Every structure is written in C-alpha cells, then in structure tokens.
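Notes to self after the call with IL:
- keep both proteins in one doc
- input above output, always
- annotate only the second one for now

Protein 1:
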Amino acid sequence: MSTHTEVVKPAHCSDEEWALRVQLAECYHLVDFFGWTETIFNHISARLPGPGNYYLVNPFGLNYTEVTPANLLKVDLDGNKVEPSPYDANPAGFALHSAIHGARDDIHCVIHTHTNPVSAVAQKKAGFSHDNFYGAQLFGRVGYHAFEGITLFADEKTRMLGSLGDKHILVLRNHGVAVGEQDIAKTFFLLWTVQRAAEIQCHAGMIPGEDTPLEDAIGQKCADLTQMLIRDSGFATKFFDAMVRKMHAARGALW
C-alpha cells in the first residue's frame, strides 16, 4: 500500500499523465488481486500521449502490490529510462512491449501473463477453443507465435509482430499470452475474457465426453458484438472501475 506522499502528483507531471499512472497502478493491483501474477515477473505497459513514443512500465523487483503511480518507470521504445528512478526495468519486457507499442497505433496498453490455464492452452497445439462462451468472443482475434526462448532479443520483434498481425491477442506458444487494446480498461477486460476462456477450456477438458461445437458464424457474431460493446460504450470502464471498488472493499483500504 502506498504512502500519502506517493499519491501526490509531482509538479512536473501533467494531469493526463498522472491519471494514466493512477489507472495503470490500479491495473497492476487488480492483476495481483485476481491471482494472475507471476511473482515479480511479467509486465503491464501503457503508452503515454505525445510525440515521444514513451510508455510506462513496472519497476523490476517490486511486487505488483508495490507498484504506485509515482514509481512507474517512463521508458522509450529501447527500454531506456527517460526520467530518473532508483529502479531498473526488466529487459525481458522490452522486446514484446516495445515492439507492439512501436508498431500498433491502435494499442495503448499491453498486458502479459502466464497463469496456469493460459499457459496450459498456450502449450496445446490447437490453442484456444472457440466453443465456450468466452472463447467464442475471441474468434478471429488470436495470433500465435512460436516459442523462441525467453523474450530478450530485438531480432524477435519483427516475427512477433508478424504473428500478431492486426489482432489483439498474441498467444506465445509454450509460454503465455499478451493482450492489447485502446486503453487500460479495455485491455483489462480483454485479459479477463482470455483468462475465463482458458479456465473453462481447461475444466471442460477434464470432463469425459465430446464438447458441443459452435459454428464459426456464431463465434464471429460473438466477437463482433463484444467489440461493439466495449468500443462504443463505457462498458469496459464500468467493468474496470467496479473491479477496483471490489478490490478496495476486499482489502479494506485505498492507497
């Protein structure tokens, strides 16, 4: 939990940037609250407005609950800090996050996780099923990238972007998933949908008997309706804010 001084906006920080920092810190806390963290690893990044091609990311070594608006790192597309900080960033995040932020103007937030259900689906050759309620909403939105080892090297960026194409979900084979959307709230809702799809797929796989398949046309309809819902209304923001309230109520304190 942050101290009072940590939530006071620094004089050099614009109101727009500070609002983004506050929301991104809340997103880190939500991912921890839902149990989707991988100790101090993985990243959630948010692109900053303006011409600098800068984005915010977590300081390496902190738990997600220790991330605050003030200690988020501002870095460029090469992972260099553009403002002083006693913290460093995890270089494993730069190849993935900087590649997407540098190439996709329609993606302003990227979340990478490898929860048990997501990693299990990523290991399966067939990938995500679109035969459950949540999986159907992902129809036509998933790209797959072959595992090349720990994501550290810049030469993999082009191949990852090719695997992602114009989609918003990138399954990293034998590893995990990265999702990206127009803003933090939409990205969090997409991650939640991916996580639920993976959970149900894993549970369905434990039950004997055949699954009931859905036609591709139904999957496309579900995906289109979900996109219309989150892009043309305040649905994702309402969902995000409700989850933040739920988290704060459960933990009994704000920052």
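Protein 2 (the one to annotate):
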Amino acid sequence: MSRMIFVNLPVADLDRSKAFYEAVGFTNNPQFSDENAACMVWSDAIYAMLLKHDFWKTFTSKTIPDAKTTAQVLLALTQDSAAEVDAIVERAAKAGGSTDPTPKQDFDFMYGRSFEDPDGHIWENTFMDMAAVPGCEAPADQPGHLASQQA
C-alpha cells in the first residue's frame, strides 16, 4: 500500500465545508462520507477528512480550537504553476473563504499564496520552479520545471 495522508479537520457545518472544498478542487469520496464526515480527495495520496464537531470529539478529549483565532498547523499544497496558485486562492474566495491570511511569497524560484476555509483552517499553495532553486537541477519532466509547462 502506498503512503497516504489523511488530514482530519473539525468543521462547524459539514455541508458548507464540503461545498467549499469541492469549489477549490477537492472531490468527495462518498464511500468514506456520511452525515458526520466527508472524505475530500486532493490526490491519490492526500485526503482531507471533514468531521462535524460532535464526531471529532469521539476521537479526542482535547478542546477544538477556534481556527479563526488560533493556528496549530499550516497545511500546504503544491501547484504546477503560479497561475494555478492564484486560481485556487480565487476559487476559495468565491466559495466563502478568505484570501492571503499568511504573507504572499514571490521569489525567483517560488511563488506562494494562501486561503482560509470557512472554519479558519489555513491552506498555503506554492509553486516552485526547481530548476531555478540554487544548486538544484530538476528533471525536465518534473512538475514545477518550466520545460514541462511549455510542452
């Protein structure tokens, strides 16, 4: 079995959160979704499990922090271009999220922006041109390499 990550997020309104994540590009896996949780798929290896607060509390006795005022993690996704970074942030804004809760990054080799979901969870989005990273040679067919985008 390949290695995967399931990011579990407490959400106040499951339907609203599911619609938000679908709007930014995740797809719902109904096989692992029900009235308490939604399995939102980003890739073959990355899943966000959206859990209603009462269901979340069955996994831990720790208090659910208010993600709009506190942060425990900054989640990060890579994108294949700077334009894709901008596009996902704009989709998040149109779907009810907020844009750029963390500083924008615009360096010679890296471009990044972030969005916040309706519950306050922050998702950073980054494009890195590996061929432009000092001391790093990326294969031409690697996503992020400029030659792969010109094909």
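Annotation: Residues 82-94 form the longest helix (13 residues). Confidence is low (pLDDT under 50) at residues 145-151.
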